[in-house]
Amino acid sequence: MKRGLIVWDKAELPPEAFETRLAAARKRLSDRDLPALVVYSDLWRSNHARFYSNFMPYFNRAFLIVPRDSKLLLLCGLSPRVYPWIKSVTILEEIVPSPNLAKQLLEVCSERAWRRIGMIDPGGLPYELHSALRGNLEIEEVPHRGDEWERAMHRRARNIAWAGLRQELADGAGRTDHQFVGRLERRYRLAGAEDLVILVSNGDTSPAPAKGQTLRESFWVSVALEYRGHWARISNLPPLVAAGSIENLGGALPYECGEPREGVVVAGHDTMWLSEAGIEPL
Q1: What span, in angstroms and rounded, lies between the C-alpha atoms of 61 and 46?
Q2: How far is it, in rounded angstroms, from Cα 154 to Cα 47?
Q3: 20 to 30 A Cα–Cα from 132, which one of 83, 156, 186, 222?
Q4: Burial level of 82, CB count in 10 A (0-12/13-18/19+)?
């Protein structure tokens, strides 16, 4: 299972964060004369739906609909038996069972006389959904932009990652990589990590999954950690080694390669913020 217990700590991420995000999204829709924004979500592409509603699925697919002048609507492939749980950890009030997502979206658009909609990353839709919608609906891409609340949550994930790594690095040498990774994962899970990728190396190869080798002094570790839907990536690799890989943590996927854009969280050897002035610490 990708995620552990999903809860919503409103002191950590308050309801007004979503109110502000939705107001900004509706302003963008108004500027483009679009009636709604549609956001695709699945297990691995949940960042944007999480941003607008706090919806983070364990599995299956959904379309989050943000109408310009009415409440959010979730078209959901999950069974209705989990809808009470979804409502308890999101701002969602209306959920429609949707085993056929494309058909259900087209029906909603037809009922509301929407012939043209906005969508974040329409090119990232699974092929069968893209094919079913193509020709039946005009879709305009509406770019996504993060905010300070999202930045703070990534900062929390980063701090958890560094705290755990620093505690285990001190006596990691001499252990097998399996032992080291197990101890590190235990710390992260107890701190609330929902998903983890831990790679290690003795410096003679790039970091890779543990394979039973004994770790030497100055071994390398790379950690990608998810905390309440927000990813961080850190490593103790030498900066020149780590500099070759910059990933976008604020994109449609949990973390992805490619040219990052202003206003998103990115990662190389540490998790950082890409602003107008360039790369900044979180």
Answers
A1: 9
A2: 12
A3: 83
A4: middle
pTM: 0.88
Residue 261 C-beta-side C-alpha neighbours within 13 Å? 7
- Paired strand residues for 95: 74
Average pLDDT (108-131) is: 95
Q: Quick: pLDDT tens for 193-220.
A: 988 999 999 999 889 999 999 999 999 9
Helices (H), the chain: 15-31, 47-53, 83-88, 101-111, 127-133, 148-169, 177-190, 239-242
| Per-residue pLDDT reduced to its tens digit, 31-46 | 999 999 999 999 888 9
Which domains are delineated in the chain?
15-141 (3.40.350.10), 148-281 (3.90.230.10)
Q: Within a 10 A sphere around the Cβ of 188, how many other Cβ atoms?
A: 23
pLDDT at residue 50 in the model? 95
The DSSP secondary-structure symbol of 119 reads E
**Long-range contacts formed by 73-80: CB under 8 A, 24+ apart:** 73/108, 75/101, 75/104, 75/105, 75/108, 77/101
